[in-house]
Every structure is written in C-alpha cells, then in structure tokens.
Write a structure and sequence with these properties.
Number of strands: 4
Structural class: mainly alpha
Largest sheet: 2 strands, antiparallel
Order of helices and strands: EEHHHHHHEEHHHHH
Radius of gyration: 19 Å
Distance between the termini: 26 Å
Number of helices: 11
Length: 307
C-alpha cells in the first residue's frame, strides 16, 4: 500500500511515515529536541526531495514538541522567561535563515548545502556531547554515586550587561547569550528543517549553566514557535510543505512524544546525553557516507529555482 505525495511527487508507504514520526516523537519527549535533525535525513533516505523534507519536517517538529511540552508543563520543568528570550532570538534567526535558504535554492545548490550542514553540525556536536557524557559517567562511577550538579563559576556570560533573573533556572545572567543561542538555532531551523534542540540543549547546559531538569521543557517551548514560524515562511514563499506528508508524520509524532517523556523520566541525565550523542553521530555518518557514493543519476533536469 502506497500513497502519492503531491508536493514531493513520490509514492511512499504511509505506515513507514507513521513509524518515522513516532520514532522522532519519542526522541522529542526523551531529549527535548524537536527531532528535525533525524526526521529530515530519514526523509532523504526514503526519496523525499531535500527542499520538501526541510519544509515539511519543520511542521512535524511543531506537533511533537507541543505534545512533549504539555507533559513538562504539568511537571513545572519549563523556564518560560528563558524560553521567551530564546524565542526572540530564534525568530530573528529564522527570518535570516530563510533568506539564505532561498538564495541557495536560486543557485540550485540547496540540496547539497543542507546535507553538508547536517554532516558538519551533527558530527561536531555529537562528538563533543559523546566525550563530555563519557567523562560525566566516569566521574560518577569513581565517586560511587551520581554527582550533585554544581553551580558554575563566574564566566564571561556573567560579565555581560542587560542581566535578567530567571527564577525557574535559578540564574541571574545577561539576556545576550540566550538571545544569541536562539538566533543561531533559528538560522538552522530555516536552512535544515530542524528544531535545533541538538544544539540548544548542550548550549543551555554548558554555556548558560541551566539545570538539566528545566532544559528539556524550555527547549521544547522555544522550538514550537520557531519551527512554526519557519513552516509558515516555507509554505508561503517556496510552496514546499507537503500537507499529506506532514499529517502522517504528525500523527506518529504526537503519540511518540508522550511515550518518550515517560521513558526520559526514568533515565539519568548522563545516560540521556550519551544516547543522544550516539544517535547524532550515527545520522551524520550516514549522510556523509551517502554524499561519497556515486549518484544513480549524474544529471538533473529540475530548474535551479524548483523544488
């Protein structure tokens, strides 16, 4: 059984799409990531054109993130003040990212650029997270128990002006670093079709010094609005959002996010980070390997500005 996707112009198995959406939903609930870093490459693998995959996966990210956010709001593990600052930077970044995306599309290089971005960003972030997580687990085993999170020493983040108190995170820092983090994530959201959680979560922990317990929920809060904004821009400017594809991914994503939230609550923070790191590295390796393979078709008849 296959369904035809009118915008992507391919036929796919609907149960495969439901499964992909469900898997990404589980990851969203477990790690506080929108899941776009995984769902977009997986759509590449099943034959969805990269431009359509980027635009449509941003739509799915909204639903899976919203479902996961509801669970975190009930537990009061969301820093809404920090999320708002991240969101402000994220919206500006998404607007700039769309300008870059449309320029690359006009040049006919958007497919290659998106895939290279995945290899570079996922490879670097995954490797750094993996090394740090291994060190954290090693320290925990040496001490015989899980180490208590320590307050970060005063760094350049604390020396910046425009300070604001974030009560849920027990922080008093400048709004500039979180705004810049949100700005960078917004650019990636527009170009790569991701929520940006795979970069935002480590940045919130290691740069901003936020407690792990509020990082996931706060990340999901910001991702919802930035990914939604990105989806609307893609739909109105590039007409590359495939509604049928999005609906199938959404159904699986919403169900999976609830399951992922319950799984994540049972695992330690170090275990969550190392699992996420391994997944990020695996996806980067797969995309990089595919780029090195000889393509089945040497030439494409599509116009540079087409999808």
């Amino acid at each position: 059984m296959h369904v035809y996707l009118p915008i992507a112009e391919v036929s796919v198995n609907p149960f495969l799409l439901l499964g992909i959406g469900g898997l990404v939903g589980v990851l969203s609930g477990m790690f506080g990531v929108g899941g776009g870093f995984l769902i977009t490459p997986m759509l590449f693998f099943i034959g969805i054109p990269p431009a359509v995959a980027v635009a449509t996966s941003a739509n799915q990210v909204v639903a899976s993130s919203f479902s996961g956010l509801m669970a975190h709001l009930k537990r009061k593990t969301v820093d809404l003040e920090m999320g708002t600052v991240l969101l402000g930077g994220g919206l500006l970044g998404a607007a700039l990212g769309m300008v870059v995306f449309n320029f690359l599309k006009h040049l006919g290089q958007v497919d290659l650029a998106v895939q290279l971005c995945y290899v570079v960003f996922l490879g670097v972030i995954g490797s750094l997270m993996f090394v740090e997580s291994l060190n954290a687990i090693r320290r925990a085993r040496q001490s015989g128990s899980t180490p208590v999170a320590k307050r970060r020493q005063r760094t350049w983040v604390h020396a910046l002006p425009f300070k604001m108190r974030f009560r849920a995170s027990s922080l008093y820092i400048s709004v500039i670093p979180p705004a810049l983090v949100g700005f960078g994530v917004g650019i990636l959201s527009a170009i790569m079709g991701v929520g940006g959680g795979f970069i935002m979560v480590p940045a919130m922990i290691y740069i901003l010094g936020m407690p792990t317990k509020v990082v996931i929920g706060t990340s999901l809060f910001q991702i919802i609005f930035v990914a939604g904004f990105t989806t609307m821009i893609h739909a109105s400017t590039n007409y590359s959002v495939d509604v049928l594809l999005a609906v199938l991914l959404l159904i699986g994503g919403v169900v999976g996010a609830q399951l992922g939230t319950h799984i994540g609550a049972r695992l330690k923070a170090e275990q969550l980070r190392i699992l996420l790191a391994l997944l990020v590295i695996a996806v980067a390796a797969k995309i990089g390997f595919d780029l090195l393979l000889t393509p089945p078709d040497y030439f494409s008849l599509s116009e540079p500005g087409g999808v």
